[in-house]
Specification:
Length: about 240
């Protein structure tokens, strides 16, 4: 425990707890005031119709700058996973990101390109856009946790902290964009797929892994750190919409 950073609102423990209690605790960590992505300022701004199309495009572009390379790194998680059922879940996740195999749509890079086109950001516009520091920080963290940390911690970052609440976040984002912005169903597929059953399935990987691999106090404390740190970086990265005001 001594090697873990102190994070406000996160209490490390000397004894392990049951998996259900651990998951409830991790959910509370993600819902800390000022860190709750379900109540992120970008969601509220979209719901009020306050963002310009340029702000939305810039915000989504910054997301792709960390999400696209991170999705590829799921291959590292797959290669290191010893459990066949968990490994299949990781592979299904990767195949959806690359090819849209579960949603029956297309690879997520292509889906986002459709959204950019309707928002007015062509490839040339995207090529000259720099990657912001908070975007780089999140991408770097995902690289570390997916390739260098134990399997459960990689799953805690990618599946639990990110994908598990995506359906709730992107469900609201999709509704807001349909209400306030003239974007076709075709252009909104990148948002809709992250609000669908696909993300629910991807988010189920965490609890399965935690029950097997995180039964000691040390392993659970490392999950608390990983979830809190990922969520904090994620929340900050989503503030990128302000850069395009």
């Amino acid at each position: 425990m001594a090697s873990l950073d102190v994070i406000e609102g996160v209490a490390y423990k000397d004894k392990p707890v049951g998996t259900e209690a651990l998951i409830a605790e991790l959910d509370r960590i993600m819902a800390r005031p000022g860190q709750n992505r379900l109540e992120h300022p970008v969601i509220h701004a979209l719901e009020r119709g306050e963002l310009s199309r340029n702000q939305i495009a810039g915000w989504i572009y910054q997301i792709t700058c960390w999400a696209n390379p991170t999705n590829i790194l799921l291959g590292s998680l797959y290669a290191r996973c010893q459990d066949e059922d968990l490994r299949k879940m990781v592979l299904d996740n990767l195949a959806e990101e690359e090819y849209g195999s579960e949603s029956g749509t297309a690879g997520h890079v292509e889906l986002f390109e459709r959204t950019f086109t309707e928002l007015g950001w062509d490839e040339q516009r995207r090529r000259r856009e720099p990657v912001l520091m908070d975007t780089w920080a999140l991408a770097h963290w995902f690289e570390v946790v997916l390739t260098q940390r134990p399997i459960a911690e990689g799953i805690a970052a990618a599946s639990f902290s990110a994908e598990r609440i995506n359906p709730l976040c992107f469900g609201r984002i999709e509704q807001a964009m349909r209400k306030h912005y003239a974007i076709s169903d075709y252009g909104l597929q990148s948002i809709a797929v992250h609000a669908s059953h696909v993300e629910v399935e991807h988010g189920s990987l965490g609890p399965s892994a935690f029950a097997r691999y995180c039964t000691t106090a040390d392993a659970q404390n490392r999950l608390r750190f990983t979830v809190a740190h990922t969520n904090e970086l994620y929340y900050r990265q989503w503030m990128s919409f302000k850069h395009y005001a």
